[in-house]
Design goal:
2 copies of one chain form a homodimer.
Chain A lengths: L1 H23 L11 H17 L4 E5 L6 E6 L7 E7 L19 E3 L2 E3 L7 H16 L6 E7 L7 H9 L1 H4 L3 E4 L11 E6 L1 E10 L5 E2 L10 H10 L22 H9 L4 H8 L12 H6 L3 E10 L8 E2 L2 E10 L5 H15 L5 E10 L2 E2 L5 H14 L4 E4 L7 H8 L3 E3 L15 E3 H21 L1
Parallel strand pairs in A: 3-6, 3-7, 7-17, 8-16
Antiparallel strand pairs in A: 1-2, 2-6, 4-5, 5-18, 8-15, 9-13, 9-14, 10-12, 11-13
Helix pairs in contact in A: 1-3, 1-13, 3-13, 11-13
C-alpha cells in the first residue's frame, strides 16, 4: 500500500499545495460580519474539493451563523467509519502591520506556507481531503469517511452544537479524527491527548457618562481604565494563582506519573525563551512551563482598550474602558460554571464608582483522549509507520470547543493527530505551516485508516 | 464707554459669531500630522482676522512644529501693554461616534455652539480679537495689545518655549491675559487663580516577540496587558493616594483659610454626580471634590490598548500593551522632576518577564496668580462691571503649559479670565461654548483694559 500511496502523492504534490494556497486566499474570518460572503465562498470551495477528492456527496448546510460543510464517502456500511472534523474559518489577521506578507496572499518561503489559516486549520483539515483522494484513487480505502468542516470554530462553534444534536445519525461514526493541534517536532512526533476548555467574556466598565477633561475632573471621578486595571490586577495573586474563589475547585490534580511523563518529553526552556524573545517565563508557582499550559487552568487578558489610543497626547478621563478576558479550563472544569464564577466575581469586585457590564462571548469544555483506547493506538501506529518513532502523548494548551459535545452526543472517542508546530504563529501575525509537515500529514493519515480498520 | 461698546457689539454680533464658526470649521488638530496643512490654514485665518480687527501688524512665525501667530496694536509705547495668549490648535475629536454633530461642522443648538475648539480655545481667544475690534472701532482703546496665539498648546507648547525665550523684547508686556479656563456659572462668576502642571508620558510593555495563541502559551508567558494592569493598579493605594515615593514631597499644603474659601464656593455634589451620571465620586481620602481637582496632584490613565480590540473574540496573548499616563501637578511641584520620578518608578516596578519603554510626551509647570496683584484686581473689577458681582477666586484643575515660563521670562503676572463652563465637554465629544458666554466675554474684556490702564 505504502508504495502506491507514495507514488500517487509524489506525482500530485504540487497540485496538493496549490489547492491549499487557493483556499488560503479566501479571507474566511468568522468573527467579522463583513466577511460573511467570504465564508460562503470558502464553504463552496470545501464542498467542491470534497467532491473532486471522491466524496459521494458534499453539502453546504446553512446555520443561523456560518455554514457547515458535510461530506461523505461510504464504501460499506458494515465497515468502520471515521468522522473528520475541521474548520475552514480563521482568526482575524490583526495586527496587520506586523505581517511580512499579506495574510490572505499566501507565499512559500524557506519551506513554510505563510498565510492566516495555513496551519489553523485549512492546511490541516485539507490533509484529510488529500489523504482521502489518495486512498480513493489508489483503491485502498478501507473505512467509510465522513467530513464535518465548520465555519465557527474560532468563535465558539455555537451553531455546530445544534447541528450535531439534530444529526446524530448522519454523523454516526466509530471515531472522530481531528488535525487542529501541534506536534513537538518532526523529530519528536507527539499526539495531543488533551485540549483545554474555554470561557471567553467581554467586560465594559463605565465611569462618567461622557469623556472628561482629565485636568478639570481628574482626581475626583473614577477613571474606568484605572478601575479596570485594578480589577484585572486582582485576578492573579503574587504566585500567579487565580484568586477567584472556587476557580480551582473542580480541577483534577494530575498524578505524579503523568507529571513525570510530561517532564520526560523533550523540552528546552532556554530554546523556548529564545524563540519568544523573553528573559523569564511566567506562571503559577509550583508548576513547570508544560504543566502550566497543559494541566492547569489559566486566565488571560486577550485585549484591552479605553481612552485615547491615537498618535500624540490627549488629556482625557474616558467614559469607558473594555477588556476581553478568557479562561482556559482543564478536565472536570465546566465552561458554564467558570463563566458564571468569572462574571459574578467581576461584578462583586466592581466598585460603586463605576458600572460593570460583563457578557459571554463563547465557551467550550475541556477534553481528554484515553491513551489506551483503540483510536489512540491506531494514531500511534500510523505515526510510527511514517516517522519511525512512537509518538509522545502530550497535553495541549489550546481548545477545540466542540470535542466534549461530540463525545457526549456521538458516543465515540476523539483523536488529535496534529501536524502543526507550536511555533506556527497560530492566532498571530505570520501564521505558517511547514510544507514538509503538510505532506507528512497527507502521508500519515491513510495509515490511520488502515490501522483503525484492522483494530476495529 | 459702555454704551458705545454695547451699541457696536450689538450691531455686529451676528458677524462676530459667524467669524468664529468659520474658524471652527478648520480641523486644526495639533497632535495629528495629517492636519499639518489645516494648522497653517488656521494660522492664516487668525492673522487675517487680527489685521481686520485693527492690529498694526500680524505675522505667522514658523517653528519646528506648528506656527505661532503674533499680532500687535501699539497706540502709545508709554501706555500699559496687555499680552493676550491663546491657542488655535484643538484636541483630537475622537471618539467620533459619540458626537451628535460633526466636530468640525459647528452648529448652534439651544444657545450653544457645538464644535471641537468652540470653548478650548478658539471661542475664547477670539473674544479678545473682537474686543480689540470694539475698542479700535469706538476709539476707546487705552492700552497697547499684543497677541500670541500658538498652535501647540494641546501638545505641550514645545516650540513656544523657544520663541518666548528668543523674543522677550517683542513680547514685553505689563500683564498676560488668558481666556482658556472656566467660570462657575454666569450667575456665579469666578476667576481661576491657579492651573495645574502636567507630566504626560507613554509606556510600552513588551512581552513575547510576537502575538501568541493564548491557549498554547497562556499561563506560561507573561501577558503584557496583565503586567501593565498590575503596574497601573499599584499607582494608587486603597485611599487613592499615589504610591510613588517622593511624589508629594514638593506639594505645598493649602492653608486652612484657602480650604475654607474653596469650601464656601457654590458647589452641589449631588448636581455634580447627576451631571456626570455617576453614583459616587472618587478620589484621595481626606479631600473634597474641589480640593481633589484644585489643590492636589493626580495621576490619570488617558488611554490604554493592547491585544485584540475588534468585534468578536480572538484568543491571543499579545506581544505588546500600551498606556498614556499623565500627572497633574500643583504649585511647587516640577514637571521635569515628576516625569523622572514617574518613569523611574515604572522602570523599577516592571517585572523581569517584560520590557518596559517609557517616554515623555510633554509637560508643563503649575501656576498661581496672587489675588492681591493689580492684574487680578483689574480682572475682578471688569467682571463686577458686567456681571454685577465680585468674582470668586477658584483653583482650576487644568493646565496651560506655558504659564510658568511666561512669568519667568517676561517677569509679569498672568490673569485667567475664562468664560467657559466645566460642563463644556472640553477634550470630549460634543464640546460646546454657550453663545451667551461668548458675548459676555467680548463685553467684559474692554473693561479689563480700562481698569488695567487706570490701576497701572
Amino acid at each position: 500500500m505504502s508504495q502506491t500511496w507514495n507514488d500517487y502523492q509524489h506525482k500530485h504534490k504540487d497540485r496538493f499545495l496549490e489547492e491549499l494556497l487557493e483556499m488560503l486566499r479566501i479571507p474566511s474570518v468568522s468573527a467579522r460580519t463583513e466577511h460573511k460572503a467570504d465564508m460562503i465562498r470558502c464553504a463552496e470551495m470545501v464542498q467542491k474539493r470534497l467532491l473532486e477528492a471522491g466524496a459521494d456527496k458534499a453539502e453546504i448546510i446553512a446555520t443561523a451563523g456560518h455554514p457547515i460543510v458535510y461530506g461523505e464517502k461510504i464504501i460499506d456500511p458494515t465497515k468502520p467509519t471515521v468522522l473528520v472534523y475541521g474548520h475552514y474559518d480563521v482568526q482575524p489577521p490583526d495586527p496587520l502591520e506586523l505581517w511580512n506578507s499579506g495574510p490572505f496572499d499566501p507565499i512559500i518561503k524557506d519551506g513554510k506556507i505563510f498565510a492566516r489559516g495555513s496551519c489553523d486549520d485549512k492546511g490541516q483539515f485539507y490533509m484529510h481531503v488529500k489523504a482521502m483522494e489518495t486512498m480513493v484513487q489508489t483503491n485502498t480505502l478501507c473505512t467509510n469517511i465522513k467530513f464535518c468542516i465548520e465555519g465557527e470554530e474560532e468563535v465558539g462553534s455555537m451553531h455546530l452544537t445544534e447541528f450535531v444534536i439534530a444529526n446524530k445519525e448522519l454523523l454516526k461514526a466509530d471515531v472522530i479524527l481531528i488535525s487542529d493541534t501541534a506536534m513537538l517536532s518532526l523529530e519528536n512526533p507527539s499526539i495531543d491527548i488533551g485540549v483545554r476548555g474555554l470561557s471567553y467574556i467581554e467586560v465594559e466598565v463605565t465611569g462618567p457618562n461622557r469623556d472628561l477633561h482629565s485636568g478639570v475632573y481628574g482626581g475626583a471621578v473614577a477613571n474606568p481604565i484605572t478601575i479596570l486595571s485594578k480589577m484585572i490586577a486582582s485576578l492573579h495573586d503574587e504566585n500567579n494563582r487565580i484568586t477567584i474563589p472556587g476557580f480551582y475547585d473542580d480541577v483534577i490534580i494530575a498524578t505524579d506519573s503523568e507529571r513525570q511523563m510530561m517532564a520526560s518529553a523533550p523540552f528546552s526552556e532556554e530554546e523556548y525563551k529564545t524563540d519568544l524573545g523573553i528573559k523569564e517565563v511566567w506562571g503559577e508557582t509550583g508548576f513547570t512551563t508544560n504543566e502550566r499550559t497543559g494541566i492547569r487552568p489559566t486566565i488571560e487578558i486577550n485585549g484591552i482598550w479605553g481612552g485615547y489610543t491615537g498618535e500624540g497626547a490627549k488629556t482625557v478621563l474616558p467614559s469607558k474602558a473594555f477588556a476581553k478576558i478568557s479562561a482556559r479550563l482543564v478536565p472536570n472544569q465546566h465552561s458554564h460554571k467558570i463563566t458564571e464564577l468569572l462574571i459574578n466575581h467581576l461584578q462583586k469586585i466592581a466598585p460603586p464608582t463605576i458600572e460593570l457590564k460583563a457578557t459571554l462571548h463563547h465557551g467550550g469544555e475541556p477534553y481528554m483522549t484515553p491513551v489506551d483506547c483503540k483510536a489512540y493506538q491506531a494514531a500511534a501506529a500510523a505515526i510510527y509507520d511514517t516517522f519511525g518513532k512512537k509518538p509522545i502523548p502530550v497535553r495541549g494548551g489550546g481548545s477545540i470547543p466542540i470535542c466534549a459535545l461530540f463525545e457526549k452526543e456521538l458516543g465515540v472517542k476523539i483523536v488529535f493527530m496534529g501536524f502543526g508546530l507550536d511555533s506556527d504563529n497560530l492566532h498571530s501575525p505570520n501564521e505558517k505551516f511547514n510544507v514538509e509537515n503538510y505532506y507528512k500529514g497527507i502521508e500519515t493519515i491513510p495509515y490511520f485508516h488502515k490501522h483503525f480498520a484492522a483494530i476495529k
